[in-house]
Design brief:
By secondary structure, the chain is an all-alpha fold. The chain folds into two domains: 45 residues, Arc Repressor Mutant, subunit A (Orthogonal Bundle); 126 residues, Tetracycline Repressor, domain 2, CATH 1.10.357.10. The chain is built from ten helices and no strands. Helix 2 crosses helix 5, helix 6 runs antiparallel to helix 8 and helix 8 crosses helix 9. The longest helix is centred in the C-terminal third of the chain and has 29 residues. The protein is elongated.
């Protein structure tokens, strides 16, 4: 009996070692399920993470979306390619995280006391953040998402969710004040971002202060 226990324990350790080796060498080839999170490994350095995100945006500004490659990002950020792939599975994931991080850092969540005032400040800051590099990256990502469902899921989970959550905080304050209902808050989010993306992606109109002020007034007046 003792021999069987020892054998079983060694067999388990051997199989686990092989599994870890395969994952380390080739990456996690299993589908990523909801809540799985990033790959196991050493906790990533926040300084290195910020360096990668900054390098991604800098290279995008210099080379355009087509010139972005994982090797170039790793070189600019001064991290190894192995480290980069351990944290992000693809260039798209890095770009989405860089855009989401930039939005969180540059777009404030104002509390002016009114829905109109909050939306006006928030949307004007959003306009300021939509520089040519960001717009080019969004065009590239939108094109990829249109033909690849996995990219569309990444856009939703790594970028859109964070931006909707930021706007949601403003709208939920308005709900708490009794200015709007929960249902209207959900609709307002779609109207605001739908209008913005329609203009950005299809170039049917500018995303400028006039757009921001018009949308803020329209949403607050309903």
């Amino acid at each position: 009996m003792l021999g069987l226990l020892i054998y079983g324990n060694l067999r388990f350790r051997t199989l686990r070692s092989v599994s870890l080796y395969v994952n380390a060498a080739f990456g996690n080839i299993l589908p990523v399920t909801e809540g799985q999170g990033r790959r196991p490994g050493r906790p990533r350095s926040e300084r290195a993470r910020q360096a990668v995100l900054a390098a991604t945006l800098a290279l995008a500004a210099e080379e355009g979306p087509a010139g972005l490659h994982m090797e170039a990002i790793a070189k600019r950020a001064k991290v190894s390619k192995e480290t980069l792939y351990r944290w992000w599975r693809s260039k798209t994931e890095v770009v989405l995280d860089a855009l989401a991080e930039r939005g969180q850092q540059t777009i404030p969540l104002p509390d002016t006391g009114t829905l109109h005032g909050d939306l006006r400040v928030f949307l004007r800051a959003t306009v300021d953040s939509a520089d040519p590099t960001t717009v080019r990256l969004l065009h590239s990502i939108a094109a990829a998402a249109a033909s690849d469902e996995s990219v569309a899921h990444q856009v939703r989970d790594r970028f859109l969710v964070t931006r909707r959550a930021a706007l949601g905080q403003i709208l939920q304050r308005a709900v708490a004040r009794g200015d709007i209902t929960d249902d209207y808050a959900a609709l307002a989010t779609d109207l605001i971002y739908g209008s913005m993306w329609y203009r950005l992606i299809f170039r049917v109109g500018p995303v400028n202060y006039q757009w921001a002020d018009t949308v803020a007034a329209a949403i607050a007046s309903c």
